[in-house]
Specification:
This protein is α+β, with helices and mostly antiparallel strands. It folds into 2 domains: about 1-60 and about 200-305, DD-peptidase/beta-lactamase superfamily (Beta-lactamase); about 65-200, 3-Layer(aba) Sandwich (Beta-lactamase). Helix content is about 45%, strand content about 10%. A hairpin with a 5-residue loop joins strand 2 (about 40-45) and strand 3. The longest helix has 19 residues, at about 65-85. The protein starts with a helix and ends in a 5-residue tail after the last helix. About 55% of the residues are buried. It binds glutamic acid. Glutamic acid binds near residues 63, 97, 161 and 168.
Length: about 300
C-alpha cells in the first residue's frame, strides 16, 4: 500500500495525457456534460485502508458496471439455471448494444449478461412485484455491496437515457417477441429498471468498496459477512475477464490481467483477487468504449505490481 501511495499521483498525471485521446459519451445526452479531462482512482485493501489520487470526489453513474451486480442479484433470486435459461456464457465480439447475433444463433437469447440485451434479460429476473420494488431491491443491494446505505440514481441521467434509448427499446421488444421476456413481463417496466440501475450514482471510493467485495468472493472482509455466495461471484468475475471491457476484453486481459468492468460514463471497477478493490473514473472514452485514462492507469498499476492473474 505504501508504494502505491507514493506512485499513484504520478501515474494518474501520466494517464491523464491518455485521456486527451478519448471522447466523452454523448449518445446519452446527459453524459456529455462530464469533464473529459478528469481522472480519479481509489484502491481499498482488506483492512479498509484506502489510497486515492486525482478527482475521486466526482460522482458518476455506474452504467454497464451495474450489470455485474444485477447479475449477482439475479443469481441469488433465481439460481444458476434460472439465469442461464435466459442468457448465454459467451463473448460476442460485437458492440455492446448490437442486435446482430440475437437473430443469428439461438433466436432471441443474448450471448452474455454484460451486453445490453443480456442485461435487460437479467433485469427482468430481479424479484419484486412492481418495477419500483425491483429497483428498490437493486438500490439496497448495491448499497450493501458498497458497505453502506441504499444507493441512489441520478434522475437527470435516467431521464436522458429513457428519452433517447431507441436501440435498447428495440432490443427489449425483440427479446419479448422471442419470449426471452415472458408473457407476464411488461417491456417498459423492465427497461425502467434497467435505465435506473445504469443511472446509479457512485464515487471511486464506493466503486472500490464494491470491487473489494468481489475480490473477497462475496464475503465483506471488513465485516466478515457473506453477502453473495462465492460461486456466483466466481461466475461474475469470469464474465468480467471475458467480456467486461467490451471488445477490448482480450487486450485488457493481456495487458492488465485482472477482472474489470467498464461503463460508458468512464467508470471502471477492477479487482485484484484476495487483495484489492479498485474504482476508477475518467469520462473520456476510446474507440472501444473504455476510459482511455482509466485503462492506461490500470495497466500501469498492474504491470508495476505484477497483478495479472494469469
Ligand atoms: N445505459 C447504457 C446503455 O444501455 C449502458 C451502456 C454501457 O455502459 O456500456 O446504453
Amino acid at each position: 500500500m505504501e508504494q502505491l501511495r507514493q506512485e499513484l499521483p504520478g501515474w494518474v498525471e501520466a494517464s491523464r495525457l491518455k485521456a486527451k485521446e478519448g471522447r466523452v459519451a454523448a449518445y446519452i445526452p446527459e453524459l456529455a456534460k462530464a469533464p473529459a479531462e478528469a481522472l480519479g482512482v481509489t484502491v481499498i485493501g482488506p483492512d479498509g485502508e484506502m489510497v486515492s489520487a486525482g478527482e475521486t470526489s466526482l460522482p458518476f453513474t455506474m452504467q454497464s458496471i451495474s450489470k455485474v451486480f444485477t447479475l449477482l442479484l439475479a443469481f441469488m433470486d433465481n439460481g444458476e439455471e434460472g439465469v442461464f435459461a435466459k442468457v448465454g456464457m459467451e463473448p460476442t465480439g460485437d458492440d455492446f448494444n448490437s442486435m446482430l447475433k440475437l437473430e443469428l444463433v439461438e433466436p432471441g437469447k443474448p450471448f452474455n449478461p454484460l451486453i445490453n440485451a443480456g442485461a435487460i434479460a437479467v433485469a427482468s429476473l430481479i424479484h419484486g412485484s412492481t418495477s419500483s420494488e425491483k429497483t428498490e431491491r437493486i438500490l439496497r443491494f448495491f448499497g450493501e455491496a458498497a458497505g453502506g446505505e441504499r444507493l441512489g440514481y441520478n434522475e437527470a441521467v435516467y431521464r436522458s437515457e429513457s428519452a433517447t434509448a431507441h436501440r435498447n427499446r428495440s432490443l427489449a421488444y425483440f427479446l419479448k417477441d422471442n419470449e426471452v421476456l415472458g408473457e407476464e413481463i411488461d417491456v417498459e417496466d423492465v427497461l425502467d429498471v434497467y435505465f435506473k440501475q445504469c443511472a446509479v450514482e457512485v464515487t471511486c471510493g464506493q466503486l472500490a468498496r464494491m470491487a473489494l467485495l468481489l475480490a473477497f468472493d462475496g464475503t465483506d472482509p471488513l465485516t466478515g459477512k457473506e453477502l453473495i455466495p462465492r460461486r456466483y461471484v466466481q461466475i461474475a468475475k469470469t464474465f468480467m475477464i471475458t467480456c467486461g471491457m467490451y471488445n477490448a476484453s482480450g487486450e485488457f486481459a493481456i495487458r492488465a490481467g485482472i477482472p474489470a468492468k467498464s461503463g460508458v460514463s468512464g467508470g471502471i471497477l477492477a479487482l485484484v483477487p484476495g487483495r484489492f478493490g479498485i474504482g476508477v473514473v475518467g469520462p473520456a472514452l476510446g474507440s472501444k468504449g473504455n476510459s482511455t485514462g482509466g485503462v492506461h492507469l490500470l495497466e500501469t498499476m498492474s504491470s508495476a505490481f505484477d497483478w495479472s492473474i494469469f
